[in-house]
Amino acid sequence: MFEGVRVLELAQWVFVPATGAVLADLGADVIKIENPRTGDPYRGLTTMGIAAMVGGVNLNWEQNNRGKKSLAVDIRTDEGREIVYDLVANSDVFLTNFLPRTLARLGYDVADLRARNPKIIIARGHGFGVRGGEANTPSYDSTAYWARGGFAHTLTPADYDGEIGSRGAIGDKPAAINLAFGIAAALFNRERTGEPSVVDVSLLSSAVWTLSSDILSSTVKEPADPAIKPNRRLDGYRTKDERLIIVSFLNEGHFPGFCAAIGRADLAADPRFSNRDSRAANSAAFEAEMKATIASRTFAEWCEILHQSATPWAPVQSAAEVANDPQVVANEYLVELDSGQGFSFKLAGVPAQFNEKPITPTRAPEVGEHTEEILLSQGKTEEEIIELKLKDVLA
Fold first, then answer.
1. pTM (two decimals)
2. Where do the domains of the chain lie, and which CATH numbers do they carry?
3. For 181-190, what is each residue's pLDDT tens digit?
């Protein structure tokens, strides 16, 4: 989809690099600029002990950096800056999550980049947006998305001491897709009008979008005491072996079929439970009947029974169960990637598929793996590259 589009990525950690990975999967030529001495600090997860590893390969790194080329250059030096400017002149998108003040200090703000390429699209990922007093506040998804964005408070039970913690990159991934969409829209607009755009997506804006059902409800109700946690009930039923099943009756037409499937057609015929309003008025009695019925069989038995029904339902699954879910397997939501070291491993594919086929990624680069290749294509000679390496501008 993006063949012929060059993306210059000056970004670290997960949110914005994951955007670059999505664009690379879709055919863009993504050049990742890395520090020649340390690389992207996200590579260091291997030493922090929180990376998913297989055969010495850091899967977290591969997930968010597959398909890119790595250029290791010191962007703080005059020589390094000129190398970046040369690439800007021949790129379609400049993708970054550096803070606005940092970009301005280093010479990579909008005016600097547009001076080298008036048509370049500038895509920026932030924690809290580009306006307001906290535009330059550092952030991660656990702070800007999960905590400040309302998820921790909304999902924490009233009787829990503390707040429910987020999972790894839980906000980075949706924000990355939002930014990729913005870039796609900007490319489409430039194709039609010739005009470039500056695209901004923040972790906070992504949280507002994702949690909008709760947030919009809060705007039309009397504001609650922020110290009071929401009283969340368990939206599921426990099986005989203590697993959970979730059932949804948003469409009233599903209720009779569900009752028949579980052997309780009497529930649909009972005037106390025959429609949504009557079930709400008699919720305690209905819940008691449902709990007793679901508790009479095992998780496996209910999965078999409900798979044959036409009811919106789902088993509450672990991450390991999701990886082996028949629908995940059938639709190839996890894709095989060749490590280049004689074995392959699985990564989550791009959520969008085209023509009913998954997109197969290629591996992530080593630090500076493509430095010489990129600079030679930009007109540098081997002698110039060696000289820059001796000056520690390149790696």
1. 0.91
2. 6-211+330-390 (3.40.50.10540), 248-315 (no CATH)
3. 999 999 999 9
